[in-house]
Amino acid sequence: MTMIKRGFVALAAGALSTALAMPAFAEPVKFDFWFGLSGDLARVVDTMCKNFNASQTDYEVVCTSQGNYDATLQNTIAAFRAGKQPAIVQVYDVGTATMMLSGAYKPADKLMEENGYKIDYADYFPGIARYYATSKGEMLSFPFNSSTALMYWNKDAFAKIGKTEAPKTWEDVGADLKAMKDAGYECPMAINISANESWQLMEQFSAIHNQPIATKNNGYDGLDARLEVNKTKFVQYVTDLKKWYDAGLIKIKSKDLGQDMVQAFASGTCQVILTSVGDHGTVGRTQKEGMKWDVAELPVYAGTERKNSLVGGASLWVLSGKSDAEYKGAAAFLNFIHDPKTALFWSTNTGYIPVTKSGFDYMKGQGFYDKAPYKGRETAIASLTASEPTEITRGIRLGNFTQIRAEFGTQMQAIFANKVSVQEGLDTLVKNGDAILERFQQTYPGKTLP
Amino acid sequence: MEKRVTFSSWTIGILFAVPQLLLIFTFFYWPAGQAVYWSLTLQQPWGGGNIWVGLDNFRSILANADYWNSITASLVFAGISTGLAMFIALVLAALTDRQLAGSRLYRVVLIWPYGIAAPALALAFRFILAPEAGFLSVINRMWPGIWDPGLDGADAMASIIVAFSWKYVGYNFIFFMAAFQAIPRSLIEAAAMDGSGVIRRFWDIQFPLITPTIFFLLVINITESFQDSFGIVDIMTSGGPANSTNLMVYKIYSDGFKGLDYSGAAAQSIILMMLIIVLTIFQFRFIERRVHYG
User: Fold this and answer.
1) Is the Cβ of A411 closer than 8 Å to some Cβ of chain B?
2) Phi and psi for B201 in degrees, rounded to 5?
3) Which residues of B touch chain A, with CB atoms under 8 Å apart?
4) What is the mean predicted confidence (pLDDT) over B65-75?
5) In the prediction, which pLDDT does B294 show?
6) pLDDT tens digits for A239-251?
């Protein structure tokens, strides 16, 4: 509807301007940007779009929320097949491999170069940049909303068991949860075991411990990569979580059950959660009056040399098949987003972190991280930059990863419901995940990742 | 007996049928044909290259344990929810058919549920059946963990069956009520005068006369339980926990749209279509024999 309407308006405007032959009143070039955020976050994106449109007169970005990441990708594919794709689209982290093989994009770095923008790619945090870059380091898409997982801990509850610091190892976590249970806390720690929690339970854990998720360096070296999480340290992690769950130290909290884990933490019901830094704002806004809490890096097993955690969130892809004028506008928009001032605006209004060193430095300089509601968010940067990315911690490059995440959720539920043992569940996850990877490989015969 | 309109030329008849035929072609035959073609190829989601693979998609689906699990779940769901929805509606219709005070009110109240859209209905039931905050939280407080649709597959299946049946009780009720109303009063009154009780009258007179309606509703309910369950599953359980409510129609959606496996989803939808055709043929051949068309 709106597309057609917009088309008519553009046509009418075009006809009018030719009729009057007054190029001075040329309409700004319009281009579409589709994104997957909704609610509060969608309003922030809308404001950002308005700011861009107000900053110059040549282009006008039309920003449309598609509701969520899945829907954004589905709608974009449908639009692309019909030749009506937007100029820029936000695609979630795990859609990267699928996008890279789609042949439906214009490399972002080429776009910027062609339009005369000099971007310093070394300025991006390496953990963020490498997730979205080719093996040769070319940036095909630009990181946009970035986050990483952190441990949120209730200081009051830890004070009760005589602790003033967050546990650094999983061994300590086990002991602390037990102590809190003994001190009368109903729910020492909350987790969720849906498909999406694959992100922090499996992906972040594996990165920090420098454990592979799949062969071929997590898929970076070829489409014939296969899962191997059934024989890494991840097995022990799931075993421990299950053990703590059985002992009543961990409760499962999800929206389906009435309260998700962020709400459970903010209300003081549960004392520890692992979730995205993106929830930092939500916890601050909705927390129980007077509750003292903080964030810390995710724990590691004793004796582990900590590596960088993975970036989460999404990046911006420029799609192929648009006009040069639209590409000019898209380049201007990406350049606008890249600006440290925009990074400050974005991070202030969401929980997301800046993606460039200059953005981070600018925000630090402005005193952002010293102020109360934002204090602690710099922990996310520390976690992302804990080490130079290794072959394994630079990211995950597996096709149809959404389906693999769904399989993760399914098997975790089977494990926690005592239908299968931890090892059986993870073996099935690998078996079914491999079938998904094989199918992806068959769909793109003879192709390799860029 | 029958009134028939006759047209002077057959072209007019065709002309009247054209809009309907066009709609059926556009919204059924054409997409169904497309699905058959897609099921025999591997489709790249963004378009471009499609690879002919013959029956490979069917082979890999039928070799997948998850798919068989989804067929079983669908059959369990169809059987229990159809049985429940029809039985309750039949009892309610039989009760309201009797000359009770206020039966008009009952009718309206019982018909309403069918007017509610599946997503709204599912959302309401999600709140009602939430283990910690909902209606059943009282039971959970007495016996912790006894009702846990988030982790217990049987509980999750029970919740979608309740939601689906609740909606179709209303639908079935309308038809049963009409069927009861069509039975001549004199038959029942005569039986009553001969001294037969309510139950006897129901089994010997009413039940045989409404078998055509029962058969019709059976076919419709089973078909709908395979297709109309999507919204309820999506909102209430998303196919979980551990695939226990991953009905065939929902698996098609999640593989096709979330997983971007268009070919696999197309093959699954062909299988689902075949299954419904087979079930319908079965019903017409074996159950319709017992139907008494007055």
Assistant:
1) yes
2) -60, -40
3) 42-49, 51, 53, 60, 64, 66, 126, 130-134, 137, 149-153, 237, 240-243, 254-255, 257-261, 264
4) 94
5) 61
6) 999 999 999 999 9
